[in-house]
Amino acid sequence: MSVFSSSASSSPVSLPLRRSSPFDPPAEYRRLREQEPVSRLAFPDGKVGWLLTRHQDVRALLADDRFSSDRQRVSSPVRRFPIRRDGPAARAGSLIGMDPPEHTRYRRMLTGYFTVRRMRELAPRIEQIVSEHLDAMERDAPPADLVPVFARPIPSLVICELLGVPYEDKATFQRCTSTLLRLDASEDEISAARDELWQYMLELVAAKRQHPDGALLGSLIQTGAGDGDLTDERLAGLGQLLLAAGHETTANMLALGTYALLGRPDQLCALRQDADLLGSAVEELLRYLTIVQFGTVRVAREDVDFAGRRIRAGETVVASLAAADRDPVQFAEPDELDLARPAAQHVAFGHGIHQCLGQQLARVEMKVGYSALFRRFPGLRLAVRPDEVPMRDDMFIYGVHRLPVAW
Amino acid sequence: MRIEVDRDRCRGAGQCALTAPELFDQSEDDGTVVVLDEQPPAALQDQARRAASLCPNSVIRLVLNPEP
Predict the structure, then answer these.
(1) What angle do CA A207, A365, B46 make, to 5 degrees?
(2) Which residues of B touch A (CB under 8 A)?
């Protein structure tokens, strides 16, 4: 029997977690992609499902309506307890875990607020926010930790303004979101954080009903979106999801992307000399870093023949976005950071109907953020040894916990 | 080349409007695709192909050599 056929029937693997370099996904993904691209996966809750590591399979899964996003039914690839076990009221409005037609109604209600044009119109305001933070950095002497002075506040302020959430309340929602993303958080901690964020959003929505403003939540209320069935619970769920999604993701791309570029002076120099490179640079950083590090999950609604295997109804399938974005069939020399590469086919934002709603906002924030940072501080450098930068191996969204820099 | 879109499948990710802004826009209401030029000139056909391949929901279809 060959090594290959025996590995195809071997016992289930666990999700690869150990990285050997800060910018590369665990090396085990490469072996799986080459030898067993649709592999049996053992979940921490004891169930067995599947892990996909090829770009074409990941895209196919996420575009296949025989698979559901229902978070009540999927197993978590990294936790012993389910992704969601709470009641329907608390899950209302959280479109990331919905299927059509319910998902379609919510998505259609929201996409008008996140179009390419609308996000470009936000660019001047984002530039202003970025500039104010760079001014503050400049006033204080180096070194500085880039995360709290730059990477975290910028997207957090932007999403707050867009939704109509008071930024002064950041201590509450940043703490809750951070707990939700911690791998080692217990089920009790998770549900306490979720409840607190939920209560916060419910109160905010009630206040908006009294005094609606022009921001997203107030505007949904005023325009009577959702044919009047947009209850406070649904609005709160929606707001909770958008708030959490909007400030952790871009924040980590800003800091981790900066760290990656500081380690590649040749690439950074090319970016500084050619502003036209910015668009492809952002796509390449999204691909190379793919910070949704444990991928995204679906559950089979029925038995499905998929890429030569039979996936049974009820089994959870993990689509490894990070592995897909290093697939050499799709990207030549995938482990190289090449800002000039046409990388737009990456799946860092997912694929299919759930592909990131805020992706155009994230792109504008990254374009403005990276270019202003490197323009303002031509001598920006790490203020610690590279191996002293604490990586977010312990969080759902990868990145750096701190990034001490000098200039 | 003629561009056809299936707006029912569109979820407004905006990949097309980002990649080929002269050919695609998004509706103000629900962010779904609006075709600006159904018969793109040769110079924009590569962009049209890129937009079609990037669309996360395979909404864009390119019909080659349409009958007059």
Answers:
(1) 125
(2) 11-15, 17-19, 21, 25-32, 50, 53-54, 56-58
In a domain? residue B22: yes
Residue B68 lies in a domain: no
pTM for the model stands at 0.95
- Identify the bridge partners of residue A51 per DSSP, sorted by sequence position: A39, A318
Q: Which domain holds residue B37?
A: 2-62
Quick one: tokens of A63?
Answer: 């575009």
Q: Please state, in angstroms and rounded to a whole number, the distance separating the CA atoms of residues A308 and A318.
A: 16
Note the ipTM here.
0.93
pLDDT in tens, B24-59: 999 998 999 999 999 999 999 999 999 999 999 999
Number of domain units in chain B: 1
Contact (CB<8Å) A111/B26: yes
Contact at CB, B21 and A116, closer than 8 angstroms: yes
Question: What domains, with CATH codes, occur in chain A?
Answer: 3-406 (1.10.630.10)
Task: Classify residue A233 by its DSSP letter.
Answer: H
Looking only at Cα atoms, what is the longest distance across chain B? Answer: 33
